[in-house]
Amino acid sequence: MKSLKTAWKNIRRSPYQAVSAIFVMTITFLAFSLVSIFVFSSTKIVTYFESKPQVTAFFKDQTKQTDINSLSNSLKQSGVVSSINFVSKDQALQIYKQQNKNDPLLLDLVTADILPSSLEISTYKINDLDLVATTLQKSPIVQEVVFQKDVVSTLTSWTGALKKIGITIVAVLAFATVLVMAIIIGIKIAQKRDDIETMRLIGAGGWYIRAPFLQEGMFYGVIGAIIGWLISMILLFLATPHLESFLHGIPLFPLSPVFLFELLAIEILLSASLGAFASYLAVLRYLK
After folding, report:
1. Closest C-alpha among 162, 148, 126, 165 to residue 56
2. In the beta sheet, which residues pair with residue 59?
């Protein structure tokens, strides 16, 4: 308890250094929050695409239902297909009517006979799309195969690259934060050198002297993490309407409150550890 009071007194006596320390922590954990939200969101988007019918096979006219069933069973036995949905000619017409309900002229021109039946196929993994598409293209009853290979591949490569960039930025900021925090705590220790020597002379133990500086570093870390998280929540709230419009119905928002508060808890633990580590480096340097 005594060390906490001493730490608080040190913070109050040097407000500019405290603000500087909290600022660098805020920047670091703001970046951490945004990168974490991006990783979580991109994972949900990829999962959404994986759960949707990714490959559509359109059959030739006069294709027998037994042949379609045989092809469907063969795909199920491959072990890479998560679901298969058969769309008959009549169902295809209903879908067409729903998509063009505001254009009566188009509705009059199309009947079920001229629309092909099809299979909508989902795979467990995006990388298995090529295998399924190749199998379908080789089938003599399939007229055309349509799948979102380019979209999904581009999404996967871009999100992977952005994750690496985000993690690198956070790592660099964390390293810089440790250096700045160690310098700030080191300055505080240097300013209190006479008081520290006096405490040593009257028998104060090493950890009794070090504890206030470690707690001060943890305080800066926790406050910076909370502020960074709050700023990221404000940015997320402001960006959500625009992102929902851009994503065109992909059920990403609102993000799970459980995830957001778990993120806050993780950041508090990490920031306290980072602050304590930076302070410990300064203590090792100046309190040998």
Report:
1. 148
2. 142
**Do 126 and 133 form a contact (C-beta atoms < 8 A)?**
no
Backbone dihedral angles phi then psi of residue 41, each to the nearest 5 degrees: -65, -45
Residues 6+ apart with CB under 8 A from 81: 75, 121, 122, 123, 124, 128, 132
Q: Say which amino acid occupies 62.
A: Q
- The Cα–Cα gap between 42 and 30 comes to 18
Q: Which CATH number fits domain 55-147: 3.30.70.3040, 3.30.479.20, 3.40.50.1980, 3.30.70.100?
A: 3.30.70.3040
Q: Are 213 and 196 in contact (CB under 8 A)?
A: no
| Cβ neighbours, 10 Å, residue 129 | 22
Phi/psi of residue 86, each to 5°? -90, 130
SS (H, E, C) 128-149: HHHHHHHHHHHCCCEEEEEECH
Domain spans in the chain, listed from the N-terminal domain onward: 2-49+153-286, 55-147
Whole-angstrom distance, CA of residue 36 vs CA of residue 267: 10
Residues 6+ apart with CB under 8 A from 174: 28, 274
pLDDT digits (tens, 9 = 90+) for 32-87: 888 888 888 877 777 776 666 678 888 888 788 888 888 888 888 888 888 888 88
Q: What is the pLDDT of residues 218-227, one digit of tens each?
A: 888 888 889 9
